[in-house]
Specification:
- Keywords: Methyltransferase, S-adenosyl-L-methionine, Transferase.
- The chain is an alpha/beta fold.
- The chain has a single domain, classed as Vaccinia Virus protein VP39 (Rossmann fold).
- About 45% of the residues lie in helices and about 15% in strands.
- It has eleven helices and seven strands.
- It has a seven-stranded mixed beta sheet, sandwiched between helices.
- Helix 8 links the parallel strand 4 and strand 5.
- Helix 1 crosses helix 4 and helix 3 crosses helix 4.
- The longest helix has 27 residues.
- The radius of gyration is 18 Å and the shape is globular.
Length: about 290
């Protein structure tokens, strides 16, 4: 039987497949300089040469976003490692896609729960098997739809101990959700004392230079045509207010310049500073 890849599956999200390709590209082209993921290529079922060729043919198109994808994953997993040091033993990856952390989890005492649509998870588990990988005992899959607003009940039914702290990873999802779904997700996080979340958000279009805004608008049209429209954007002030309403305190809000400094990348030019932010936030202490 011919092996089905992420791009060929009718069950797969084209944007999730694109993010998975960029994680793999970072391993091949950049040597995983920012983010090491030894399973990124295996789970896709592609040969490294395809990714090298893509990077050579379209360097201006893939490089900035590739490095951002690598940076946000590294930030999330660094923050997770610190949370484990503090005693957190549960990780929930919201909208996991083809993320491989649950397969290479270095913390034997930490249980990982992947949350995504049932169709996505079925396809991913097929890809895991096709890659000759095992599903670790500490990995669980929980199927849900974020737009239903039932995340807390779904997590509890799926085995998450809601009386104990949880570390949430929520990357590449918020822009696709409306305000109600975002509020429901943040309320779920905030209701679990001692919990923490890492997520990314996109800034309003007026934040970009004219040339960059045109490119962003073109990408927005492209993903909307594929049924995955970008819905929500926030300014840093609006994001701070949103999290405060839900009882979450921002520990870090990293823009492009801050991420570049963190990973030794060049300072962005003045007209290229706008872009997605990565946030680390914790449930606020009472009082």
């Amino acid at each position: 039987m011919r092996q089905v890849t992420a791009e060929q599956s009718p069950l797969w999200s084209s944007t999730a497949a694109g993010v998975a390709r960029l994680r793999a590209l970072h391993q091949v082209v950049d040597g995983g300089a920012i983010f090491q993921d030894p399973l990124a290529l295996r789970i896709l079922g592609h040969q490294a040469a395809q990714y090298e060729r893509s990077a050579r043919e379209h360097p201006e198109r893939v490089t900035p976003f590739r490095l951002f994808i690598a940076a946000r994953s590294r930030i999330a997993e660094d923050a997770l490692a610190a949370a484990v040091q503090r005693g957190v033993r549960q990780v929930v990856i919201l909208g996991a896609g083809l993320d491989t952390f649950g397969l290479r989890n270095p913390f034997p005492e930490v249980r990982v729960f992947e949350v995504d649509r049932a169709e996505m998870q079925g396809f991913k588990r097929d890809r895991i098997a096709a890659a000759g990988l095992d599903e670790p005992e500490m990995l669980r899959f929980i199927a849900t739809d974020f737009t239903l607003g039932t995340l807390r009940d779904t997590l509890g039914a799926g085995g998450v101990d809601l009386t104990q702290p949880v570390f949430f990873i929520w990357l590449g999802v918020m822009i696709y959700l409306d305000q109600a779904a975002i509020d429901a997700t943040l309320a779920c996080v905030a209701a679990i004392p001692g919990s923490e979340i890492v997520f990314d958000y996109s800034v309003p279009l007026e934040s970009f230079s004219d040339a960059t805004r045109r490119n962003v608008e073109e990408r927005a049209r492209s993903v909307a045509e594929r049924g995955e429209a970008w819905v929500s954007r926030f300014s840093p002030d609006d994001m701070r207010a949103l999290l405060a309403r839900h009882g979450l305190t921002i520990m870090q809000d990293l823009d492009k310049a801050a991420m570049n400094r963190r990973f030794g990348l060049p300072e962005p030019a003045a007209d290229e500073r706008a872009g997605s932010h990565v946030v680390i936030a914790r449930v606020s202490e009472p009082g």
